[in-house]
Structures are given as structure tokens and as C-alpha cells.
Amino acid sequence: MKSSAEIAPDAAPMSIGEAAARFGLATHVLRHWESMGLLAPSRIAGDRRRYAPRELYRIAMILRAKEGGFTLEDIRAMLIAPGPAERRAILAARRAELVRRIEEARASLALIDHALACDADDLALCPRFRADLADLAGLPVPVARDNALGFAGVVGEAAPPRPNVNASQNVSPRSRT
Predict the structure, then answer these.
(1) DSSP string covering the chain
(2) Domain membership of residue 96 as a residue range
(3) Quick check: 156 pLDDT over 60?
């Protein structure tokens, strides 16, 4: 939304051009939303549309819903829902989708943060970077190899404890059979 100015409840109605400009929209967008039943501005002489505070709030709600992933059809269904239960069902479905998108965005952010801090010459060969992308690529999580320990395991997994090479020297001769 372009404007963050408060909408006074007793504000004079606006023309379609004023309302569109307030939100950074083209006038044809408001006409389209009206044709879909999302807006119902009043009319004055010459069939000119007038947008009162109620419609301005509706425009703001439509824009925010679109930012949240609602389609215009979803918004329309929510607005014409016969009751709170139907409206909540629509909202719950969109909420689940929004949570999924937020999780994906967080995973992308973590990947970017790793890439920014990674010292690998070729990021595509970095085991941690690959591990973060394995599920998306449909590939198994790469195995990290620590040649000094002879350990092979999943990236991020702790290596098993090293065997105590001196322990065999402390064993009694009878147990070495």
C-alpha cells in the first residue's frame, strides 16, 4: 500500500482517481474489483463512483490479503461468506499456506546467510550448502568425510569418539587371546 495515512470515518468520499492514487493503483484495478463484487462504491450524478471510508478500508483489506497470498476469488468468497464459520475456514486454509511460505522464506534466508559466511571456493561443492539443498533437489544428504578420523557421516552429525589407542596396552595378557 502506498498510503499509510489514517482514514477518517467522516472523510468526504473520494473519486476513483483519488482512491486509486491513495493506494498506488490504476483506476482500472478498482473497476475490476468492483466487477468481481469486491467493492461497491456509491454513485453520484453522471454515474461517477465515490469511495467513502468504508470502501477505502475494503481496498486496504484487499491489498493486505493479496500480500498474504489470497487470490481475488478467495477474498470474494471470504467477503460473501454466509457466516463466521465459512470465513474462518477460508482464513485457516490461507493461514496454513502463509505459514508454509514463511518457513520456505526462512530456509532461503538461512541458505543466504550460510552463503555469505561460507569460505568455500565453490559454494556448490560446500557440504553444508549441499545439505541445506538436498531435500529441495530430491537428493540424499551428502556425506561429510573427516579423513583424520576416518569418519563418514551426515553433515552436521557429531563424529563418534576416537578409540583410545593406549587402552590395548593396559589390558592384561590373559584377555588378549
Answers:
(1) --------TTPPPB-HHHHHHHHT--HHHHHHHHHTTS---EEEGGGEEEB-HHHHHHHHHHHHHHHTT--HHHHHHHHH-SSHHHHHHHHHHHHHHHHHHHHHHHHHHHHHHHHHH---SSGGG-HHHHHHHHHHHT-PPPEEEETTTTEEEETTPPPPPPP-TTGGGGS-GGG--
(2) 81-117
(3) no
